[in-house]
């Protein structure tokens, strides 16, 4: 899309400011995409993307920064604006992301996400930065880390949480976890939307720190979600038994029992496995 003069000027100013700091590089050709194409964004969110650890970027790598509405616990995040640019040298890169302040709604939560890709291959990814209610700060620093080894294909997909310990999940407060091949997870414990990272090696599995919205929910949704987080912190291993994903603590006690959601990769993997066994 073409960038209006006011935003282009603001972008160049931000480039001069960040570009004057050693190690910060801003590419003036970065393009900002917004759902509304009729007019240029009315505000600019500036910040940095820093690669944690060794830097190994191919020549065609691209950095993406996305602003999303993450208010709904049981629905995908809604993208509001995105910028894509080429990183040049160093380990920290400045960005300028145009967005429309009128699109921000009171009481909604917003998050920034950054990643670095080489074509379709994901190289580095950040944990989402939850910015707050109905507003975004003027400066936000994001840290991206190298993508870990892919999760086992049997784990990838969306899983409904059926039991937390021995307690059955309340049908009126459904909970689920979705695992991506790169180790990113999202879901809900029945109240708030959550996101984070998961690592698995052999039968070992552990959850990293999780971020999420902070809505107060009625009924037993909050107590159920608290129980989920308490159980997730103790997870040390995983296994699939008769199509169910069983997550256990270090003593081997099952703390979370999950079943594959239909139309998910996990459900398709289960169906394919059953089909092969029946032959």
Architecture overview:
This protein is mainly beta and 279 residues long. It folds into two domains: 43-146, Immunoglobulin-like (Sandwich); 153-276, Beta Barrel (Lipocalin). The chain has helices at residues 5-19, 221-232, 265-278; strands at 24-25, 31-33, 43-52, 62-69, 78-85, 92-99, 109-118, 121-126, 129-133, 139-146, 157-164, 167-168, 176-179, 184-188, 193-201, 204-207, 211-212, 237-241, 244-248, 254-260. The strands form two sheets. Strands 1, 2, 3, 4, 5, 6, 7, 8, 9 and 10 form a ten-stranded mixed β-sheet that branches. Strands 11, 12, 13, 14, 15, 16, 17, 18, 19 and 20 form a ten-stranded antiparallel β-sheet that branches. Strand 4 and strand 5 form a beta hairpin. The longest helix is centred in the N-terminal third of the chain and has 15 residues, at 5-19. It is globular. The model is unreliable at 1-31 and 34-38 (pLDDT under 50).
């Amino acid at each position: 899309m073409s960038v209006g003069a006011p935003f282009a000027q603001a972008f160049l100013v931000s480039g001069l400011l960040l570009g004057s700091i050693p190690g910060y590089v801003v590419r003036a050709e970065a393009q900002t995409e917004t759902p509304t194409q009729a007019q240029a964004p009315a505000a600019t969110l500036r910040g940095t993307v820093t690669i944690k650890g060794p830097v190994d970027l191919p020549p065609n790598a691209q950095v993406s920064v996305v602003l999303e509405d993450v208010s709904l616990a049981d629905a995908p995040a809604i993208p509001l604006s995105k910028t894509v640019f080429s990183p040049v040298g160093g380990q920290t890169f400045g960005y300028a992301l145009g967005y429309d302040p009128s699109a921000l709604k009171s009481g909604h939560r917003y998050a920034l996400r950054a990643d670095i890709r080489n074509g379709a291959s994901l190289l580095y990814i950040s944990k989402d930065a939850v910015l707050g209610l109905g507003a975004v700060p003027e400066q936000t620093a994001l840290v991206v880390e190298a993508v870990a080894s892919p999760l086992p294909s049997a784990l990838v997909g969306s899983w409904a949480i059926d039991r937390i310990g021995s307690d059955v999940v309340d049908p009126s407060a459904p909970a689920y976890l979705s695992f991506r091949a790169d180790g990113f997870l999202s879901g809900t414990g029945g109240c708030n939307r959550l996101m984070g990272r998961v690592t698995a090696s052999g039968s070992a599995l552990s959850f990293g720190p999780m971020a999420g919205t902070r809505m107060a929910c009625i009924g037993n949704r909050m107590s159920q979600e608290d129980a989920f987080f308490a159980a997730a912190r103790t997870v040390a291993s995983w296994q699939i038994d008769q199509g169910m994903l069983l997550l256990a603590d270090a003593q081997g006690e099952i703390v979370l029992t999950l079943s594959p959601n239909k139309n998910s990769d996990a459900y398709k993997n289960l169906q394919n496995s059953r089909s092969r066994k029946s032959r």
